[in-house]
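Quick one: structure tokens for this chain, please?
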Amino acid sequence: MAPKYAPSLRGRLPPMTLLLETIFISMFAFFVEYEDPAVIRKIPLTDIYAEFQDVNAMVLLGFGFLATFLVRYSFSGAGFTLLVTSLAVQWAILLDGFLFTFHRGKIRIGMNSLATANLCAASALISMGAVLGKTNPAHLIIMALLEVTGFMANRWILQTFLKVQPIDAIMMLHVFGAYFGLMMSWVLYRSGLEPRHEKEATDRRTGLFATMGALFLWMFWPSFNSVLIGQTHLERKLQAISSTYLSLATSTVAAFFVSVVTSPRGKINMIHIQNASLAGGVAVGVAVSAVDVPWVAMVIGLSAGVVSTLGFRYLKPHLRVVFKCHDTCGVLSVHGMPGILGWAAYFLIQASRLPDITAVLGFTIYHLCTLLLTLGLSLGLGALTGILIKWNIWRPPQDRMCFDDQAYWEFPHLAVHK
């Protein structure tokens, strides 16, 4: 019997990508131009280009290699990361321009807008991690466009109505991306992948590539958290870089000792190290504008590493069994919980600086609204996206073809020549 869904992508991927690129190029032709030369002379490209490249390497190499951990899905993990990023940054540039910098009918592209687009693409890649291996490229493109749209809308609401600082609104990308992806995963849950899919496994080779991805992310995370802080605020920039580095260091130590303590045989789990070592960068990033002393950053990192490792050890399996939410990459433990931990740390730091209880209560309500709004929008839009891509028109992969590169990629070296 012929398979229910043909493996060829010809009927879905080329028309979708060609249509999107036609729309994007048309919009760029009418609305987008390069930054004014006077502005470029005032803020030299060298001030931000190196950090932009750090973020670029983090998004493509870091997330790309980290997604190669599945033994039969490494081509797709790296390749689909490139595809999603390439489309997401174009859409993010347009949305960021229309919502925040639109002036006299034009959007001006500068290094800041490119860096912001990369951060928005990272949010889409976080969401992708929750459904990795269970979706096809058409699904991921739809997910990326809707996720970036929702994240930009969330930023606009936070900055316009709640007067949240731009960097604080953008750094909610971890919370937004994680819970968007988790809700998608819940909607797309398949009983046919239970208990554990035979192809959902890793080996030493793919584990090594994933570790390389984690190291890229670890190295470049200080730039990720500081890239949008201007050169006119060098003190804040130094604080962000140093806080991120110290937080990553302590979260890494926490990942090692919690992994050993919770192991039945007292051994280190490499998956914990690959992921929980990054939790400090997530947590301190959400609180980056409030952290101004080193020991606070270290406490945040240590707490994030503990929470993330415990999440991988105990929460991820229960999430799958009890809540029917199959989180492939563990984005809840890497981004979701550390993101909320960073939000709580920001609240405690800022509340401790307020003069009286009335001000604390007012700030509590205000800060709680930022989280509830982000969670509500991410969960709602994630559910809507999941329902949309669940339609058979998008030809979802069969259960037996999940976590398998051969559904999408050519393997000439495996071909049988007659």
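The two ends are 25 Å apart (CA to CA).
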